[in-house]
Write a structure and sequence with these properties.
alpha/beta; Alpha/beta knot; Trp Operon Repressor, Chain A; 2 domains; five-stranded parallel beta sheet; three-stranded mixed beta sheet; 8 strands; about 35% helix; binds adenine
Length: about 230
């Protein structure tokens, strides 16, 4: 998979791309991630990427031209098709099923919106999809892009060491994850459920399934309705 990210704050991404699992996935060759400074696609000496909105109003709007040039330049470098995604609060809300679908794409180009808005023509003519990470407004699309990248990369085959860690995690089959415990078995008066130290794997699996269901019903009943 290849992911290209267009942003006016490309340095923000090192926090996620140069650490932990996403870094390891890149080192293993499972994903190639490139960040692009939107200002590199401007033609004026001030490297201007925004302007005032037509019709008046407060704030500045990210302009369509540099974004268009960035997308074109990236598409030229990519062999094959690329899906262009605009991160914005109006987009389709990201969930595990959507992350899984996007993780099957060969090439993604992520556009991070900013300021008070982005020229509507980016949405109309450049973006194939709009993605939101939740019903709240961030100062820009960068954090949303990082969330998206993290959620996708961990789903790529061979990225997580243990295949089972994907099978039983939260949201698989619309259920939350069951409770987990580790050593020591005895700590203060905070007991570990006996079944987990029983060694009976049939019972353990049944207990875990039931706990997943109970938790989901208690904490996220909306998931069961889906
Ligand atoms: N940009 C600002 N807020 C956002 C959100 N909630 N999701 C995606 N991009 C955003």
């Amino acid at each position: 998979m290849r992911i290209d990210i267009i942003s006016i704050f490309p340095k923000m991404f090192s926090a996620v791309l140069d650490e932990s699992m996403v870094k390891r996935a890149q080192l293993k060759g499972k994903v190639k991630i490139f960040t692009h400074d939107l200002r590199d696609y401007t033609l004026d000496k001030h490297r201007k990427v925004d302007d005032r909105p037509f019709g008046g109003g407060s704030g500045m709007v990210l302009q369509v031209e540099p974004i268009f040039r960035a997308v074109q330049a990236i598409k030229k470098k990519i062999k094959g098709k690329a899906k262009v995604i605009l991160l914005c609060p109006q987009g389709k809300r990201l969930n595990q099923a959507y992350a899984k679908k996007l993780s099957g794409c060969r090439n993604l180009i992520l556009i991070c919106g900013h300021y008070e808005g982005i020229d509507e023509r980016v949405r109309q003519y450049l973006a194939d999809e709009e993605v939101s990470i939740g019903d709240y407004v961030l100062t820009g699309g960068e954090l949303a892009a990082m969330v998206l990248v993290d959620s996708l990369v961990r789903l790529l085959p061979g990225v997580l060491g243990d295949k089972n860690s994907l099978n039983f995690e939260s949201f698989e089959g619309n259920l939350l994850e069951y409770p987990q415990y580790s050593r020591p078995a005895k700590f203060k008066n905070w007991p570990v459920p006996e079944v987990l130290v029983s060694g009976d794997h049939r019972k353990i699996n049944a207990w875990r399934k039931l706990q997943s269901f109970k938790r989901t019903r208690l904490k996220r009943p909306d998931l069961l309705k889906q």
